[in-house]
Amino acid sequence: MLGPVILAASRSDRMRRLISAAPVTKQVVDRFIPGEDVDDIVPVVRDLADNGLELTMDVVGEDITNPAQAAAARDAYLELVDRLKPLELGTRAEMSVKLSMFGQALEGGHELALSNVRPVVEAAAEIGTTVTLDAEDHTTLDSMFAIHEELRKDFPQTGCVIQAYLFRTEADARRLAESGSRVRLVKGAYKEPASVAYQDKHEIDRAYVRILRTLMEGTGYPMIGSHDPRLIAIGQELAHQAGRKLDEYEFQMLYGIRTDEHLRLAAEGHRMRVYTAYGTDWYGYFMRRLAEKPANLRFFARSMLTK
Ligand code: FDA
Predict the structure, then answer these.
(1) Out of 131, 286, 292, 297, which residue is the most buried by the measure of CB atoms under 10 Å away?
(2) Mind telling me which residue stretches traverse the membrane in this protein (predicted)?
(3) Using CA positions, which residue lies closest to atom 41 of ligand 1?
(4) 289 within a domain of the structure (yes/no)
(5) What is the distance in A from the centroid of ligand 1 to the CA of 191?
């Protein structure tokens, strides 16, 4: 029951101001977001890579209000690419982007987001890596998929995310699996109405398995974005049934969540990519992590009370 309340708070400016200003918030945030700027994050990248893990990097931010902020977001990613270059990690360190941060919701936002994301995809390709487009709320997805298709004409490795909780996703998965895309499948993290999304956890899990089967049987590159032990085991089994080798799919998890499992899968020879977010505009990202697990909220509330 708490999840939807926290997700509603994630869109409230008043809650944003309250929570962002609380002195203890930072300690809890650090568990999920290990840095505020690119200087903080380069050692984290090195450390994860040294442990046999791969990365997808997210400069946090969304719901911007003017084109200058969208250009600043683009520049933050370009700086990140610059800083990754000497590490020579290639596709072991890719980028994840939210198109809302690149201006998608502003007037003329589809073209604006495309014009801001393209230079990031080009810069990533120059250092031998790629970009994945995150999935945000359902109203943004037609534009996201159109931008994905457009980028893939020049950069076929550009990836995208699909969300198992949406009714539309089984059809999206069939289309993407046939076109040979890199696709990250997640359960879905936004507050969506019953008219477009499953609300029941078990129904979402069943949809996840159906969609993952489609991706595994297709010609693309499936990326299993989940911490759920059952889905991870099913993912391995579906990959095996589809005759995929270990380098023909991968697991992805969020920084700070089930870290032992990251290392276990990597040690077993799996490609294991850690979604690592950093930056100052962490509110929306942090609130979605609280919503996913009520115990996080209890920990957060306890640390507020004991200070
Ligand atoms: P589930 O929520 O059932 O969690 C399984 C277990 O994992 C829990 O029992 C708990 O042990 C642990 N766990 C999960 N979340 C936790 C948390 N926040 N704190 C502590 N423990 C936690 N969503 C989206 O809509 N668009 C996107 O682009 C992305 N991108 C993305 C990338 C990657 C790499 C991942 C892993 C996830 C996303 N998501 C996302 C988020 C996704 O939709 C979903 O909300 C979370 O992954 C939680 O769902 P699980 O599949 O982990 O299962």
Answers:
(1) 131
(2) none
(3) 189
(4) no
(5) 14
